Amino acid sequence: NGFPDNDDIVSYSNKYLKKEKDFSAFNDPTWYESSTDKLPLHIGRILCQRENVSWEARTRKKYAVAILSISIVVAVIILVIASYRNLEFQSIVMKLILPLFPAFYWAVTYYRENQKASESMIQVKEQIHQLLEKVKDGIASEEEITKASRELQNVIYYKRRDTPSVFDWIYNKFRDKNELLESEAAKAIVEEILKRYSLPGR
Questions:
Q1: What is the pLDDT of residue 76?
Q2: Cα-to-chain-centroid distance, residue 83
Q3: Which residues contact 118 (CB under 8 A, 6 or more apart)?
Q4: Phi and psi angles of residue 12, each rounded to the nearest 5 degrees, phi first
Q5: CB–CB of 58/178 below 8 Å?
Q6: How far apart are alpha carbons 144 and 131 in whole angstroms?
Q7: CA 84, CA 31: separation in Å to the nearest integer?
């Protein structure tokens, strides 16, 4: 059915537990912007999904750009070394390009995959915005919103399943900035929904 079995979940969990020692991030009660608590669950859930995919799209785009930038820098260094040593074309290929070809191939592949993943998450974000517009206009019922949210979560799951993971240090590097950006965006959306949907702040 496309979803992981319980034994697979336990297996991957055990592997993670052996590798990671710090779980403080998982104990953070404010994983998502706290202002979403002012909204009914079926609406707040959508904002959390928006924050989730927006965060991932931004992180993967930066990751892809970093991979491309490093690859270009390495290529320039190779050309400088070749020029400095007055190497012939055959020597450049045999001594510099061929040994580094697997690394360049990996870099290009990862750049494309993460760029594609980022664009894919941006598309999901657009779907979420369309759903939020219906919420703001009051033209979608709780049942419709809940069903749409469930379908969006399935889309998010499958897209993540089919894309490479981002290194933890990449996530940690951009965490504070992403949290600030997503927090401010979520607050603005929450206030707009409260005003247009005639919901009292909680």
A1: 86
A2: 40
A3: 56, 57, 58, 60, 61, 64
A4: -65, -35
A5: yes
A6: 10
A7: 52
Q: Mean pLDDT of successive 10-residue segments in the chain (202 residues)?
A: 69 73 57 81 91 90 89 85 77 77 87 91 92 86 92 89 81 81 87 73 48
- Determine contact, residues 54/126, Cβ cutoff 8 Å: no
- Token pair of 30 as six digits: 């404010």
Q: Which two tokens stand for residue 137?
A: 């206009």
CA distances from 12 to 4, 119, 164 (A): 10, 27, 16
> Tokens at residue 68, please?
């491309």
Per-residue DSSP letters for the chain? --SPPHHHHHHHHHHHHHH----GGGG-TTSS-GGGGGS-HHHHHHHHHHHHHHHHHHHHHHHHHHHHHHHHHHHHHHHHHHHHTT--HHHHIIIIIHHHHHHHHHHHHHHHHHHHHHHHHHHHHHHHHHHHHHHHHT-S-HHHHHHHHHHHHHHHHHHHHTSPPPPHHHHHHHHHHHHHHHHHHHHHHHHHHHHHTTPPP-
Name the residue among 84, 57, 44 with its Cα closest to residue 163: 57
